[in-house]
Amino acid sequence: MNGSFAARLRRAAARAIGHPTPHSRSGRHRVHGVVCMLLGVALVGGCTSSGSGDDRKVPGRSPVTLRVLASSELEDMKPVLEAAREATGVTVEATWSGTLDAVEQIESGKADGKFDAVWLSSNDYLRLRPGTGPRISSETPVMTSPVAIGVRTQAVRRLGWRPEDVTWTQIHRAVADGRLTYGMTDPVRSNSGFSALISVASGLSGAQSALTEADVRKATPKLKEFFAGQQLTSGSSGWLAAAYTRRTTVDALVNYESVLLSMNRESRAGLTVIRPKDGVVSADYPFTLLTSAPAEARAAGRTLTEYLRGSDAQQGITERTLRRPVVAGVKPAAPLAAGIRRELPFPGTRSVADGLLDAYDNKLRRPSRTVYVLDTSGSMAGDRLQRLKDALTELTEDFRDREEVTLMPFGSAVKQVRTHTVDPADPDAALRAIRADAARLSAEGETAVYSSLQEAYEHLGSEDSTKTFTSVVLMTDGENTTGIEATAFDAYYQGLPADRRHTPVFPVLFGDSDRAELEHIAALTGGRVFDATTGTLDGAFEEIRGYQ
Q1: Quick one: 208 exposed, middle or buried, by C-beta within 10 A (0-12, 13-18, 19+)?
Q2: Are residues 257 and 185 both part of a single domain?
Q3: What are the pLDDT digits (tens) for 501-536?
């Protein structure tokens, strides 16, 4: 297994159990069970309650708070959970998490005593981890949503497709011929992305059952052609939808059917939603009780799932979220297509899942090209600069084969520009050089945010951005104090050719940085702000990886 891929797993495990992470890419070996760690939605931290805080007592029932570790994509269930609280007295206190961290917390035992239940898009990957089995007492599917591809209506007409007859082979052929481009979430961090990867690999290999290593090898040449057409990547379905709306030249999105239909309803995206005829992988959103939960919580969990599977709640779920009901007799919401599609099985072994994700990360997908614009002004002296050095050193564990990394530290102006490409034949050479560059950083000068961003775009130049996933990461602990102002940078950016404006900036809040300033930069360029003031700098850099 590629070293960066294995290292990502070790880092996730360390975060979940509170251990320090290694800073070496040596000792490459296969890390079994990677899939169950890697299939997640955007890594969104924090804890919010779905209730209003008014634990009104339901006649005949005692109010109970159920602590749930949940996929962040389920935040759209808050109104349903509020109705459940009013009907049952059960308040869901949800901690929104990526699946990677959620699974590690369960297997490590850290979830014991902290959570009563876990609610992810699927438990298929949990089952590949033997350490999670004894920690789960029951699981109850609540709703379903298959992977689908949403294609702009004009592209469907151009391709001459009949939506009900389209197969993954047809989609691959259109992509390979340069007639179709698309966006998809990162399979390493998103269950929808991994489910899509399984679906495509199954369809292109002709597998009649769970994927084998031979199936993956057989499909690899076609998979490489298929992923050459991927123009957008993301660790978050929400950001991907926004980026797709911005990039009108991208033809399609691969995501859950419910996400694509919601885009049509909420933003009139004009997508024809296709469930390929040769099979898809579906999420079934099982509400899963933990064996460590007290008896009262387990009883409350059963009460909650009984309510959620009731006819009224199921009808409300499908109408509100456009997911499919799991209870017979409940009519799916009007936009949901009728008809049965073949349900593709999840890989049966960890080695197949590991190998498929490793191949995607380091061989199949477009390489990344990233400029890290790093504030090393005088205010970064001391602990802040050391935290930056440590975060960059740790980040080298996560760089992929073929990735181009540019470090651009700045103060009153850009201090130096150092670019390294991770050569698959000798990746350690580039990683050692990046760590050495990080160690040499020094703090001095004022803070030229906008001049430095402009230089980053100039560095990227006019190279065809459709061949790489190109982005700029901006980390600053303050506001712009010298160089050009925001209005000048805005004018510069708006004057760039359209293809160069496709490069987003991902600002990182750190220290005393100006949130409004960074949010403006993200909105202007189509990026997203990541917060290292409530979390850690290395955690923010890690979260950004899903967007590169």
Answers
A1: exposed
A2: yes
A3: 999 999 999 999 999 999 999 999 999 999 999 889
The reply to whether 235 and 295 lie within a common domain is no
Could you tell me if 78 and 50 are in contact, meaning their C-beta atoms sit under 8 angstroms apart?
yes
- The CATH number for 125's domain is 3.40.190.10
212 and 305 assigned to the same domain:
no
Angstrom distance (rounded) from CA 446 to CA 101: 38
Nearest to 224 by CA among 216, 236, 232: 216
Query: Residue 26: what are its φ and ψ, rounded to 5°?
Result: -75, 170
Beta strand residue intervals within 379-536, DSSP E: 404-410, 418-421, 469-476, 505-509, 530-531
Burial grade of 138 (CB within 10 A; 0-12, 13-18, 19 or more): middle
- Give the 3-state secondary structure of residue 305: helix
Q: Extract the tokens encoding 127.
A: 């089952």
Instruction: Report d(CA 513, CA 443) in Å as an integer.
Output: 16
pLDDT tens by residue, 106-161: 988 999 999 999 999 998 878 877 788 899 999 999 999 999 999 999 999 999 99
Query: What tokens does 373 get?
Result: 């614009």
Give bridge partners of residue 144 from the DSSP assignment. 324
Q: What is the pTM of this model?
A: 0.85
Q: What are phi and psi of 420, to 5 degrees?
A: -135, 140
Q: Are residues 298 and 446 in the same domain?
A: no
The residues facing 140 across adjacent strands are: 287
Q: What's the token pair of residue 69?
A: 């570790």
Instruction: Let me know if residue 291 belongs to a domain.
Output: yes
- Half-sphere exposure at residue 64, Cβ-oriented, CA atoms within 13 angstroms: 23
- CB 186 within 8 Å of CB 237: no
